[in-house]
What we know:
Shape: elongated
Amino acid sequence: MSPTAPATSSRPPPSSGAGLDVRSETDIVTLSLISHTNAGKTTLARTLLRSDIGEVRDAPHVTLFNESYTLLNDAGSVLRLWDTPGFGDSARLLKRLKRERNPVLWFLSQTWDRITDKPLWCSQQALKNVREEADVVLYLVNAAEPPDAATYIDSEMEILSWVSKPVVVLLNQTGQPQAPEVEAGEIEAWRTHLTKYKLVREVLTLDAFARCWVQEDKLMASLAPLMEGSRIATFQHIKKAWHQRNLDTFRSSARLLSEQLTAALMDGVEVRAETLLERIGWQREELNREYNEARQKLASQLADRVEQTTNKLIEAHGLSGAAEKELSQVARDHFHLPQGVNESIWGVLGSFAGGAMGGLIADLKLGGLTFGGGALIGGLTAGVGAYALIRSYNLVRGNDHRLRWSREHFREQVKLALLAYLAVSHYGRGRGEWKESSQPQHWNDITESVLDAHADAIDLLWKNGVQKETAPEMLFRQSRHLVNDCLTMLLQRLYPELGDEVFA
Protein backbone atom coordinates (compact mmCIF):
# COMPACT_ATOMS: atom_id res chain seq x y z
CA MET A 1 0.00 0.00 0.00
CA SER A 2 1.32 3.39 -0.96
CA PRO A 3 1.60 6.24 1.56
CA THR A 4 -0.80 9.15 1.08
CA ALA A 5 0.71 12.15 -0.65
CA PRO A 6 0.99 15.45 1.23
CA ALA A 7 -1.62 18.08 0.63
CA THR A 8 0.79 20.47 -1.05
CA SER A 9 2.57 19.94 -4.35
CA SER A 10 5.99 21.09 -5.48
CA ARG A 11 4.74 21.59 -9.06
CA PRO A 12 4.92 25.34 -9.81
CA PRO A 13 2.20 27.15 -11.75
CA PRO A 14 2.87 27.54 -15.48
CA SER A 15 3.91 31.16 -15.12
CA SER A 16 6.48 30.66 -12.37
CA GLY A 17 9.91 29.14 -11.83
CA ALA A 18 12.61 27.73 -14.05
CA GLY A 19 12.06 30.28 -16.80
CA LEU A 20 9.26 28.25 -18.39
CA ASP A 21 7.15 29.84 -21.10
CA VAL A 22 4.20 27.50 -21.55
CA ARG A 23 0.52 27.73 -22.37
CA SER A 24 -0.76 25.08 -19.97
CA GLU A 25 0.31 22.12 -17.89
CA THR A 26 -0.73 19.81 -20.71
CA ASP A 27 2.12 21.25 -22.78
CA ILE A 28 4.71 20.01 -20.28
CA VAL A 29 6.35 16.61 -20.20
CA THR A 30 8.31 16.03 -17.02
CA LEU A 31 11.23 13.69 -16.40
CA SER A 32 12.63 13.05 -12.93
CA LEU A 33 16.30 12.12 -12.75
CA ILE A 34 16.95 9.87 -9.80
CA SER A 35 19.52 7.33 -8.65
CA HIS A 36 21.43 6.10 -5.69
CA THR A 37 23.35 9.07 -4.34
CA ASN A 38 26.50 10.20 -6.15
CA ALA A 39 25.78 8.29 -9.36
CA GLY A 40 26.19 11.33 -11.59
CA LYS A 41 22.69 12.83 -11.91
CA THR A 42 23.76 16.47 -12.04
CA THR A 43 26.62 15.64 -14.39
CA LEU A 44 24.20 13.97 -16.80
CA ALA A 45 21.78 16.87 -16.43
CA ARG A 46 24.57 19.22 -17.55
CA THR A 47 25.19 17.10 -20.62
CA LEU A 48 21.51 16.98 -21.59
CA LEU A 49 21.04 20.69 -20.90
CA ARG A 50 24.33 21.69 -22.54
CA SER A 51 24.76 24.03 -19.59
CA ASP A 52 26.78 24.04 -16.33
CA ILE A 53 23.97 23.79 -13.80
CA GLY A 54 24.10 22.60 -10.21
CA GLU A 55 27.16 21.59 -8.20
CA VAL A 56 29.25 18.53 -8.92
CA ARG A 57 31.48 17.02 -6.21
CA ASP A 58 32.60 13.53 -5.26
CA ALA A 59 30.38 13.43 -2.20
CA PRO A 60 26.93 12.15 -1.30
CA HIS A 61 23.89 14.43 -1.52
CA VAL A 62 25.61 17.39 -3.14
CA THR A 63 22.15 18.16 -4.54
CA LEU A 64 19.93 18.86 -1.51
CA PHE A 65 16.77 20.05 -3.21
CA ASN A 66 14.76 19.11 -6.28
CA GLU A 67 15.78 21.47 -9.06
CA SER A 68 13.76 22.03 -12.25
CA TYR A 69 15.31 22.78 -15.65
CA THR A 70 13.96 23.21 -19.14
CA LEU A 71 15.54 20.74 -21.54
CA LEU A 72 13.60 22.03 -24.53
CA ASN A 73 10.87 24.58 -25.22
CA ASP A 74 9.62 24.53 -28.78
CA ALA A 75 6.47 26.45 -29.66
CA GLY A 76 5.24 26.10 -26.08
CA SER A 77 5.83 22.35 -25.85
CA VAL A 78 8.19 21.93 -22.92
CA LEU A 79 10.42 19.09 -21.80
CA ARG A 80 11.22 19.60 -18.14
CA LEU A 81 13.93 17.78 -16.18
CA TRP A 82 14.02 17.52 -12.39
CA ASP A 83 17.40 16.89 -10.83
CA THR A 84 16.72 15.23 -7.48
CA PRO A 85 18.88 14.58 -4.38
CA GLY A 86 18.71 10.84 -5.05
CA PHE A 87 18.40 7.94 -2.67
CA GLY A 88 20.81 7.59 0.24
CA ASP A 89 19.90 4.88 2.70
CA SER A 90 17.11 3.40 0.62
CA ALA A 91 16.59 0.45 2.96
CA ARG A 92 15.72 2.78 5.86
CA LEU A 93 13.52 4.90 3.59
CA LEU A 94 11.59 1.80 2.60
CA LYS A 95 10.99 0.94 6.25
CA ARG A 96 9.84 4.49 6.92
CA LEU A 97 7.37 4.40 4.03
CA LYS A 98 5.91 1.14 5.22
CA ARG A 99 5.43 2.59 8.73
CA GLU A 100 4.24 6.16 8.15
CA ARG A 101 1.09 6.36 6.09
CA ASN A 102 -0.49 9.42 7.75
CA PRO A 103 0.14 12.60 5.67
CA VAL A 104 0.69 14.74 8.78
CA LEU A 105 3.23 12.36 10.19
CA TRP A 106 4.84 12.17 6.73
CA PHE A 107 5.31 15.94 6.65
CA LEU A 108 6.50 16.20 10.25
CA SER A 109 9.00 13.41 9.79
CA GLN A 110 10.50 15.23 6.81
CA THR A 111 10.87 18.43 8.81
CA TRP A 112 12.59 16.62 11.64
CA ASP A 113 14.74 14.50 9.33
CA ARG A 114 16.03 17.62 7.60
CA ILE A 115 17.69 18.55 10.88
CA THR A 116 18.65 15.15 12.26
CA ASP A 117 19.03 12.83 9.27
CA LYS A 118 19.91 14.63 6.03
CA PRO A 119 20.44 11.48 3.90
CA LEU A 120 16.98 10.19 4.77
CA TRP A 121 15.41 13.62 4.25
CA CYS A 122 17.06 13.98 0.83
CA SER A 123 15.76 10.55 -0.14
CA GLN A 124 12.25 11.60 0.84
CA GLN A 125 12.52 14.75 -1.28
CA ALA A 126 13.55 12.70 -4.29
CA LEU A 127 10.60 10.35 -3.83
CA LYS A 128 8.15 13.23 -3.41
CA ASN A 129 9.34 14.69 -6.67
CA VAL A 130 8.85 11.41 -8.54
CA ARG A 131 5.39 10.96 -7.07
CA GLU A 132 4.18 14.50 -7.70
CA GLU A 133 5.97 15.57 -10.87
CA ALA A 134 7.27 12.78 -13.07
CA ASP A 135 5.69 11.46 -16.22
CA VAL A 136 8.67 9.14 -16.55
CA VAL A 137 11.54 8.36 -14.17
CA LEU A 138 15.10 8.32 -15.48
CA TYR A 139 16.96 6.03 -13.10
CA LEU A 140 20.75 6.15 -13.30
CA VAL A 141 22.99 3.27 -12.36
CA ASN A 142 26.75 3.15 -12.10
CA ALA A 143 27.65 0.83 -14.96
CA ALA A 144 31.25 0.67 -13.76
CA GLU A 145 30.10 -2.01 -11.30
CA PRO A 146 28.42 -5.30 -12.29
CA PRO A 147 24.62 -5.45 -11.84
CA ASP A 148 24.72 -7.95 -8.98
CA ALA A 149 27.04 -5.64 -7.02
CA ALA A 150 24.43 -2.88 -6.92
CA THR A 151 22.70 -4.21 -3.81
CA TYR A 152 20.69 -1.00 -3.33
CA ILE A 153 18.63 -1.56 -6.47
CA ASP A 154 16.13 -3.97 -4.88
CA SER A 155 14.96 -1.53 -2.20
CA GLU A 156 14.99 1.47 -4.57
CA MET A 157 12.94 -0.34 -7.19
CA GLU A 158 10.43 -1.35 -4.53
CA ILE A 159 10.22 2.28 -3.42
CA LEU A 160 9.67 3.46 -7.00
CA SER A 161 7.03 0.78 -7.58
CA TRP A 162 4.88 2.48 -4.94
CA VAL A 163 4.48 5.60 -7.08
CA SER A 164 3.48 3.67 -10.22
CA LYS A 165 5.59 5.65 -12.70
CA PRO A 166 7.38 4.04 -15.68
CA VAL A 167 11.17 3.83 -15.32
CA VAL A 168 13.89 4.02 -17.97
CA VAL A 169 17.26 2.86 -16.64
CA LEU A 170 20.31 4.73 -17.92
CA LEU A 171 23.79 3.21 -17.69
CA ASN A 172 26.14 5.97 -16.54
CA GLN A 173 29.85 6.11 -15.70
CA THR A 174 30.63 3.60 -18.42
CA GLY A 175 34.08 5.03 -19.12
CA GLN A 176 35.34 5.45 -22.68
CA PRO A 177 32.98 4.62 -25.57
CA GLN A 178 33.11 0.89 -26.14
CA ALA A 179 32.99 -1.28 -29.22
CA PRO A 180 29.38 -1.99 -30.30
CA GLU A 181 29.49 -5.65 -29.31
CA VAL A 182 30.91 -4.83 -25.86
CA GLU A 183 28.28 -2.17 -25.19
CA ALA A 184 25.50 -4.49 -26.38
CA GLY A 185 26.70 -7.18 -23.97
CA GLU A 186 26.76 -4.71 -21.06
CA ILE A 187 23.23 -3.51 -21.80
CA GLU A 188 21.96 -7.07 -22.07
CA ALA A 189 23.52 -7.96 -18.69
CA TRP A 190 21.68 -5.09 -17.03
CA ARG A 191 18.42 -5.87 -18.84
CA THR A 192 18.58 -9.45 -17.67
CA HIS A 193 19.25 -8.32 -14.11
CA LEU A 194 16.33 -5.88 -14.14
CA THR A 195 13.79 -8.15 -15.84
CA LYS A 196 12.02 -8.87 -12.56
CA TYR A 197 11.10 -5.19 -12.10
CA LYS A 198 7.98 -4.64 -14.19
CA LEU A 199 8.21 -0.85 -13.84
CA VAL A 200 11.49 -0.84 -15.84
CA ARG A 201 10.48 -0.29 -19.46
CA GLU A 202 13.91 0.13 -21.08
CA VAL A 203 17.63 -0.01 -20.37
CA LEU A 204 19.92 2.31 -22.35
CA THR A 205 23.47 3.62 -22.29
CA LEU A 206 23.69 7.39 -21.79
CA ASP A 207 26.95 8.38 -20.18
CA ALA A 208 27.38 11.92 -18.89
CA PHE A 209 31.01 11.97 -20.03
CA ALA A 210 30.92 10.13 -23.36
CA ARG A 211 27.54 10.16 -25.06
CA CYS A 212 26.56 10.72 -28.66
CA TRP A 213 23.49 12.54 -29.95
CA VAL A 214 22.16 9.38 -31.56
CA GLN A 215 21.89 7.89 -28.05
CA GLU A 216 19.79 10.89 -27.02
CA ASP A 217 17.49 10.21 -29.96
CA LYS A 218 17.17 6.59 -28.84
CA LEU A 219 16.18 7.80 -25.38
CA MET A 220 13.47 10.00 -26.91
CA ALA A 221 12.19 7.05 -28.94
CA SER A 222 12.04 4.93 -25.78
CA LEU A 223 10.10 7.60 -23.88
CA ALA A 224 7.43 8.11 -26.55
CA PRO A 225 5.40 4.91 -25.83
CA LEU A 226 5.36 5.74 -22.12
CA MET A 227 3.34 8.93 -22.51
CA GLU A 228 -0.36 9.03 -21.66
CA GLY A 229 -3.29 11.29 -22.52
CA SER A 230 -2.44 14.80 -23.65
CA ARG A 231 1.27 14.08 -23.11
CA ILE A 232 1.32 11.86 -26.20
CA ALA A 233 0.89 14.67 -28.72
CA THR A 234 3.08 17.05 -26.71
CA PHE A 235 5.93 14.58 -26.56
CA GLN A 236 5.73 13.78 -30.26
CA HIS A 237 6.36 17.46 -30.91
CA ILE A 238 9.21 17.49 -28.37
CA LYS A 239 10.76 14.35 -29.85
CA LYS A 240 10.72 15.81 -33.34
CA ALA A 241 12.19 19.14 -32.18
CA TRP A 242 14.93 17.40 -30.17
CA HIS A 243 15.92 15.29 -33.17
CA GLN A 244 15.90 18.30 -35.48
CA ARG A 245 18.23 20.22 -33.16
CA ASN A 246 20.70 17.33 -33.10
CA LEU A 247 20.39 16.83 -36.85
CA ASP A 248 21.10 20.52 -37.46
CA THR A 249 24.29 20.19 -35.40
CA PHE A 250 25.28 17.06 -37.36
CA ARG A 251 24.79 18.84 -40.68
CA SER A 252 26.62 21.91 -39.46
CA SER A 253 29.54 19.71 -38.42
CA ALA A 254 29.61 18.06 -41.85
CA ARG A 255 29.67 21.50 -43.46
CA LEU A 256 32.59 22.65 -41.30
CA LEU A 257 34.64 19.56 -42.08
CA SER A 258 33.81 19.88 -45.78
CA GLU A 259 35.08 23.45 -45.79
CA GLN A 260 38.31 22.29 -44.17
CA LEU A 261 38.89 19.53 -46.73
CA THR A 262 37.93 21.73 -49.68
CA ALA A 263 40.42 24.38 -48.61
CA ALA A 264 43.15 21.74 -48.23
CA LEU A 265 42.54 20.59 -51.82
CA MET A 266 42.80 24.15 -53.08
CA ASP A 267 45.96 24.95 -51.12
CA GLY A 268 49.08 25.17 -53.23
CA VAL A 269 52.48 26.82 -53.31
CA GLU A 270 54.18 28.15 -56.42
CA VAL A 271 57.63 26.67 -57.19
CA ARG A 272 59.89 27.17 -60.17
CA ALA A 273 60.38 24.58 -62.85
CA GLU A 274 63.23 22.15 -62.35
CA THR A 275 66.44 22.38 -64.25
CA LEU A 276 67.60 19.37 -66.21
CA LEU A 277 70.21 18.52 -63.58
CA GLU A 278 67.69 18.84 -60.77
CA ARG A 279 65.29 16.64 -62.67
CA ILE A 280 67.78 13.80 -62.62
CA GLY A 281 68.76 14.36 -59.02
CA TRP A 282 71.87 16.55 -59.21
CA GLN A 283 72.51 19.98 -57.78
CA ARG A 284 69.19 19.93 -56.03
CA GLU A 285 70.08 21.77 -52.79
CA GLU A 286 68.14 24.87 -53.82
CA LEU A 287 65.20 22.81 -55.01
CA ASN A 288 65.24 20.87 -51.74
CA ARG A 289 65.04 24.13 -49.84
CA GLU A 290 62.12 25.38 -51.94
CA TYR A 291 60.18 22.16 -51.48
CA ASN A 292 60.86 22.29 -47.78
CA GLU A 293 59.53 25.84 -47.56
CA ALA A 294 56.48 24.89 -49.60
CA ARG A 295 55.79 21.97 -47.31
CA GLN A 296 56.14 24.10 -44.19
CA LYS A 297 53.73 26.68 -45.60
CA LEU A 298 51.14 24.05 -46.46
CA ALA A 299 51.56 22.38 -43.04
CA SER A 300 51.10 25.70 -41.26
CA GLN A 301 47.98 26.49 -43.27
CA LEU A 302 46.58 23.06 -42.52
CA ALA A 303 47.33 23.35 -38.80
CA ASP A 304 45.62 26.72 -38.55
CA ARG A 305 42.59 25.41 -40.38
CA VAL A 306 42.32 22.28 -38.20
CA GLU A 307 42.51 24.53 -35.15
CA GLN A 308 39.75 26.81 -36.42
CA THR A 309 37.49 23.97 -37.47
CA THR A 310 37.95 22.13 -34.18
CA ASN A 311 36.93 25.19 -32.23
CA LYS A 312 33.88 25.73 -34.42
CA LEU A 313 32.90 22.09 -33.83
CA ILE A 314 33.27 22.58 -30.08
CA GLU A 315 31.08 25.68 -30.21
CA ALA A 316 28.46 24.00 -32.42
CA HIS A 317 28.07 21.23 -29.83
CA GLY A 318 27.46 23.65 -26.98
CA LEU A 319 30.89 23.13 -25.45
CA SER A 320 33.74 25.39 -24.45
CA GLY A 321 37.40 24.67 -23.98
CA ALA A 322 41.05 25.58 -24.40
CA ALA A 323 41.71 23.80 -27.68
CA GLU A 324 42.03 27.06 -29.55
CA LYS A 325 44.81 28.34 -27.32
CA GLU A 326 46.80 25.12 -27.40
CA LEU A 327 46.48 24.53 -31.13
CA SER A 328 47.26 28.15 -31.88
CA GLN A 329 50.48 27.85 -29.90
CA VAL A 330 51.46 24.79 -31.89
CA ALA A 331 50.72 26.51 -35.19
CA ARG A 332 52.66 29.65 -34.34
CA ASP A 333 55.67 28.24 -32.51
CA HIS A 334 56.32 24.86 -34.06
CA PHE A 335 54.95 24.36 -37.52
CA HIS A 336 57.56 26.50 -39.19
CA LEU A 337 60.44 24.59 -37.63
CA PRO A 338 61.82 21.17 -38.57
CA GLN A 339 61.67 19.93 -35.00
CA GLY A 340 59.60 17.74 -32.79
CA VAL A 341 56.66 19.07 -30.84
CA ASN A 342 56.06 18.36 -27.17
CA GLU A 343 53.78 15.36 -26.66
CA SER A 344 51.56 17.12 -24.12
CA ILE A 345 50.78 19.93 -26.55
CA TRP A 346 49.89 17.45 -29.24
CA GLY A 347 47.41 15.66 -27.01
CA VAL A 348 44.61 17.82 -28.35
CA LEU A 349 45.08 16.60 -31.89
CA GLY A 350 46.64 13.27 -31.02
CA SER A 351 43.56 12.21 -29.08
CA PHE A 352 41.63 12.26 -32.35
CA ALA A 353 43.70 9.45 -33.73
CA GLY A 354 42.72 6.98 -31.06
CA GLY A 355 46.26 6.65 -29.80
CA ALA A 356 47.61 5.76 -33.25
CA MET A 357 49.88 8.78 -33.61
CA GLY A 358 50.57 8.09 -37.22
CA GLY A 359 49.58 9.51 -40.54
CA LEU A 360 48.96 13.21 -40.52
CA ILE A 361 49.46 13.58 -36.76
CA ALA A 362 52.96 12.13 -36.79
CA ASP A 363 53.71 14.21 -39.82
CA LEU A 364 52.66 17.51 -38.29
CA LYS A 365 54.34 16.71 -34.98
CA LEU A 366 57.64 16.89 -36.79
CA GLY A 367 56.88 20.17 -38.44
CA GLY A 368 55.42 18.65 -41.56
CA LEU A 369 58.70 17.23 -42.81
CA THR A 370 58.57 13.49 -42.53
CA PHE A 371 55.21 12.20 -43.74
CA GLY A 372 55.28 9.12 -45.89
CA GLY A 373 58.87 8.93 -46.96
CA GLY A 374 60.42 9.54 -43.58
CA ALA A 375 63.15 11.70 -45.12
CA LEU A 376 64.44 14.76 -43.28
CA ILE A 377 66.24 17.66 -44.92
CA GLY A 378 69.66 16.54 -45.98
CA GLY A 379 68.73 12.89 -45.58
CA LEU A 380 68.04 12.20 -49.22
CA THR A 381 70.65 10.20 -51.04
CA ALA A 382 72.35 11.47 -54.16
CA GLY A 383 70.62 10.56 -57.37
CA VAL A 384 67.05 11.02 -56.11
CA GLY A 385 65.10 12.86 -58.77
CA ALA A 386 62.78 15.83 -58.35
CA TYR A 387 59.65 13.67 -58.46
CA ALA A 388 60.91 11.44 -55.68
CA LEU A 389 61.95 14.51 -53.74
CA ILE A 390 58.43 15.90 -53.93
CA ARG A 391 56.97 12.59 -52.84
CA SER A 392 59.28 12.45 -49.84
CA TYR A 393 57.51 15.60 -48.63
CA ASN A 394 54.17 14.01 -49.50
CA LEU A 395 53.53 16.62 -52.17
CA VAL A 396 52.57 16.41 -55.83
CA ARG A 397 52.76 18.93 -58.63
CA GLY A 398 49.29 19.92 -59.79
CA ASN A 399 48.33 20.84 -63.33
CA ASP A 400 48.91 24.47 -62.38
CA HIS A 401 52.53 23.54 -61.53
CA ARG A 402 51.95 24.35 -57.87
CA LEU A 403 52.83 21.89 -55.13
CA ARG A 404 49.76 20.32 -53.51
CA TRP A 405 49.07 17.63 -50.91
CA SER A 406 49.33 14.11 -52.28
CA ARG A 407 46.35 11.76 -52.40
CA GLU A 408 47.81 9.71 -49.51
CA HIS A 409 48.12 12.77 -47.35
CA PHE A 410 44.60 13.89 -48.25
CA ARG A 411 43.22 10.52 -47.15
CA GLU A 412 44.83 11.09 -43.75
CA GLN A 413 43.22 14.50 -43.60
CA VAL A 414 39.81 12.92 -44.17
CA LYS A 415 40.56 10.45 -41.39
CA LEU A 416 41.56 13.24 -39.04
CA ALA A 417 38.32 15.11 -39.83
CA LEU A 418 36.17 12.07 -39.00
CA LEU A 419 38.04 11.36 -35.76
CA ALA A 420 37.81 15.01 -34.75
CA TYR A 421 34.04 14.84 -35.18
CA LEU A 422 33.83 11.75 -32.96
CA ALA A 423 36.02 13.35 -30.29
CA VAL A 424 33.81 16.44 -30.09
CA SER A 425 30.36 14.89 -30.65
CA HIS A 426 30.85 12.34 -27.85
CA TYR A 427 32.11 14.87 -25.33
CA GLY A 428 29.51 15.34 -22.59
CA ARG A 429 29.06 18.80 -21.13
CA GLY A 430 29.21 17.19 -17.71
CA ARG A 431 32.97 16.84 -18.18
CA GLY A 432 33.37 20.61 -18.13
CA GLU A 433 35.44 22.45 -20.72
CA TRP A 434 36.47 20.45 -23.75
CA LYS A 435 40.02 19.19 -23.44
CA GLU A 436 42.31 16.50 -24.69
CA SER A 437 41.50 12.91 -23.81
CA SER A 438 42.50 9.50 -25.04
CA GLN A 439 40.12 7.90 -27.48
CA PRO A 440 39.18 4.22 -27.92
CA GLN A 441 41.05 2.11 -30.45
CA HIS A 442 37.87 0.84 -32.08
CA TRP A 443 37.17 4.39 -33.29
CA ASN A 444 40.38 4.27 -35.29
CA ASP A 445 39.60 0.79 -36.65
CA ILE A 446 36.03 1.61 -37.69
CA THR A 447 37.15 4.91 -39.23
CA GLU A 448 39.68 3.02 -41.34
CA SER A 449 36.92 0.68 -42.54
CA VAL A 450 34.76 3.67 -43.50
CA LEU A 451 37.67 5.21 -45.43
CA ASP A 452 38.19 1.92 -47.26
CA ALA A 453 34.50 1.84 -48.21
CA HIS A 454 34.77 5.36 -49.64
CA ALA A 455 38.25 5.00 -51.14
CA ASP A 456 37.06 5.67 -54.70
CA ALA A 457 35.07 8.75 -53.66
CA ILE A 458 38.04 10.15 -51.68
CA ASP A 459 40.34 9.54 -54.64
CA LEU A 460 37.90 11.20 -57.04
CA LEU A 461 37.56 14.23 -54.78
CA TRP A 462 41.32 14.58 -54.61
CA LYS A 463 41.66 14.30 -58.39
CA ASN A 464 38.96 16.92 -58.93
CA GLY A 465 40.72 19.30 -56.55
CA VAL A 466 44.39 18.77 -57.36
CA GLN A 467 44.44 17.52 -60.96
CA LYS A 468 41.32 18.96 -62.56
CA GLU A 469 41.11 22.19 -60.56
CA THR A 470 37.34 21.97 -60.17
CA ALA A 471 35.51 25.17 -59.29
CA PRO A 472 35.45 25.74 -55.48
CA GLU A 473 31.63 25.62 -55.29
CA MET A 474 31.47 22.26 -57.06
CA LEU A 475 34.39 20.94 -55.02
CA PHE A 476 32.66 21.92 -51.79
CA ARG A 477 29.44 20.15 -52.83
CA GLN A 478 31.38 16.99 -53.63
CA SER A 479 33.29 17.24 -50.36
CA ARG A 480 30.12 17.77 -48.36
CA HIS A 481 28.48 14.75 -49.97
CA LEU A 482 31.52 12.62 -49.11
CA VAL A 483 31.76 13.85 -45.51
CA ASN A 484 28.04 13.33 -44.91
CA ASP A 485 28.19 9.78 -46.28
CA CYS A 486 31.31 8.97 -44.23
CA LEU A 487 29.91 10.37 -40.98
CA THR A 488 26.61 8.55 -41.51
CA MET A 489 28.32 5.20 -42.10
CA LEU A 490 30.68 5.86 -39.19
CA LEU A 491 27.83 6.41 -36.73
CA GLN A 492 25.87 3.46 -38.10
CA ARG A 493 28.85 1.16 -37.58
CA LEU A 494 29.43 2.50 -34.09
CA TYR A 495 25.70 2.19 -33.29
CA PRO A 496 24.38 -0.71 -35.44
CA GLU A 497 20.78 -0.24 -34.30
CA LEU A 498 20.56 3.10 -36.17
CA GLY A 499 18.44 3.34 -39.29
CA ASP A 500 18.75 5.73 -42.21
CA GLU A 501 15.74 7.69 -40.92
CA VAL A 502 17.91 9.14 -38.12
CA PHE A 503 19.80 11.22 -40.66
CA ALA A 504 16.76 12.29 -42.71
